[in-house]
Structure formats: C-alpha cells, structure tokens
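pasting for ref
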Amino acid sequence: MIELKSVLLEEVGPEWRKAEEITEAHIFIYVVSGQLTYRLNHQDIPLTKGDVLFIPKGTLRAGIGDGTQMHQKFAFLFQSSGAADHTSIPLLAHKPYLLLHTRNHEYMKQRFSLLLQQWLGKLPHYELICTGIVLELLGIAAREADHADLPLKKLSMVATIQQYILDSYRGQIRLEELSQLVDRTPNYVTRIFREVTGQTPIDYLHQVRVYAARDLLLNSPMTIGQVADQLGYCDQSYFNRMYKKITGHPPSNHTGHQAIGQRREERA
C-alpha cells in the first residue's frame, strides 16, 4: 500500500532553483505551464506544459527554472510499503525515472485539482479519497507509457480532435463534426480516441468545459447560470449534473479551492 506524504501546487518565477539532494520519497510531477529542468543523477531532464515526471525515491535531484518565464506544476510525494507495490504499481519499477507527455492534459489537471482540494480540506475519509486519486494518476501514467508505441497517425488524429475541442468548446460540438474533421466515421473516431486517451471525445469535451467553468466560478463574478450558458450548456441542471459527475461536488461548492497553493509541506 502507498502512503501519501504531501500534495502541492507550485507557481514559481523564472529564477526558481531546487538545491541538489537525495529524494526521500517517490515524486510524481505534472507540469501545468511554463518550462523548467530537473537534474536527476547528473542528467538534465527538460520539462514543459503537459509533461509528467516520476522520480523514484533515492534519486539525486536538483532543479532550475528556464530564466525567462514562471512555471506551474502539481506534485505528490509518496512512500511504498512493500515489494508487492512494485507489481501492482508499474511506475515503481521505472529506473532511474519516467518521463512522458500526457495525451490528456485537461483531465490530468482536473484530477490533480481534486486531489489537492481533498488533501487541504482534510474532511472525513480524505485519506482514502486521496489514495484513490493517486492510484488513478499512477495508472494513467503507466498506461500512457505502455501506449507510447501507438502509431503516430492515430496519435496525430486524436491530437487534432483534442485541439479542435480546446479551441471550440464554448460552442456546440457534435461527434459527426469531429469525424468530418479527420475524415473518418463517428464510430472509428470514438474507438481511436478511447484507445489513446481512455475516454470518448464527448467525455473529453465535458471535462474541458467543467475545468473552464471551475476557473470562471473561482476567478470571476459570473453566476453559475451565466457560466453554464457561456460554456454551451443551455440547461443549468444538466450543467450541475455534469459538474458534479466530473469534480465530485456541485458548482456551488468551492470551499477548499481558495486554499490551493497556500499550504506547502515539501517543495517539489
């Protein structure tokens, strides 16, 4: 079983530095924006938006910003309790590290946001919920690492669809529209998208919308109804259901999000 030690969100300037030291726990890092470089066992590992880096316990680690822009990253630190974890959690077998570029950027952000909310809120059973989210993130990374050899044509097709959704999510998007975009049938698009990302294009659309809604509700004076309408939900009750399905709580409940980034138990 794993023991979660810390969850954090860092937003730091271009001159950020991490002094060289031995890591005392496994570290899982997800870069939300910007660029930085880690030096692991004397090897430089450049990171940019969408990159995932797993650093095993015992790695000699240092870090530095790119000198021109700030970066933002999520991270969690954890310990594994026994040899059985290396069988059930494939990432633990990766030495000296694992680096990959996630194909599901928005979903990764959403899950990390929920993880941090639960960790900071410390409501009843938060440990169990946090462990579940951590295992999911480790599983997603392991699956994407296994699928790294997927044909480039499939990856390119899914990337095209994802980018179209990111550019157009405020409007009405239909599966037929996405299939015409890549000149394939709707069934083929759904099957390939699920093969690469683990979800359907429509599920991905809802996740992008809900993540955008969360930002608007936290950082603008807009009401829930106004946010729902702006993001293409004509029915606010449907928006409420989708929001709760994806985040685990209704859009009216943002207690705990305001604390994001305020509590740092160990810097990544």
